Amino acid sequence: MEKRSGNWMIVVGCFLLALAVALGAFGSHGIRGQISQDAFRIYDTMVTYLFYHSFALVIAGIIGRHSMNGWILWAGRLFSLGILFFCGSLILLTVVKALVLPGFGWIGPITPLGGLGFIGGWLSLAIGISRKN
């Protein structure tokens, strides 16, 4: 497996980290106090997980540049899917709660799928590091 394939993880992770900082600032200075505490708590959780797992994606990419294997590649994919499903569903839940929109209960069950992606990403990263080429 080509070691440069870790580059996409680093680039995407850096863009997502910039997004996490921007969303965190927007939350603290733009919407705090404008939405319910429950909606803000969901938003804050989303920003926290976006930051941690974007950073994990960068780490996986750096490790992959030195020793790429299938497990490291899967870690990057699973972190990406986790971010999409976990953070994506939480931002949607924040909007739904802030606007008090009925009929969007289907969004909540998406979040645990993202959580499974995060768990799988961390486990894949651990296995990939232990089986370095």
Q: Would you report the number of β strands?
A: 0
Described by strand count, sense and barrel closure, the largest sheet is: none
Uncertain runs are none
Q: So what's the overall shape? A: elongated
The percent range for strand residues is under 5%
Estimated helix fraction:
over 70%
Question: Structural class, please?
Answer: mainly alpha
Quaternary status: single chain
Name the helix and strand elements from N-terminus to C-terminus, one letter apiece: HHHH
Q: Give the overall pLDDT as a whole number.
A: 92
What does the radius of gyration come to? 16 Å
Termini distance?
Answer: 10 Å
How many domains?
A: 1
Please report the number of helical segments.
Answer: 4
Structure write-up:
This protein has 133 residues and is mainly alpha-helical. It has one domain (3-130). Helices cover 80% and strands 0% of the residues. It contains four helices and no strands. Helix 2 runs antiparallel to helix 3, helix 2 (37-67) packs parallel to helix 4 and helix 3 packs antiparallel against helix 4. The radius of gyration is 16 Å and the shape is elongated. The model has no long low-confidence stretch (mean pLDDT 92).
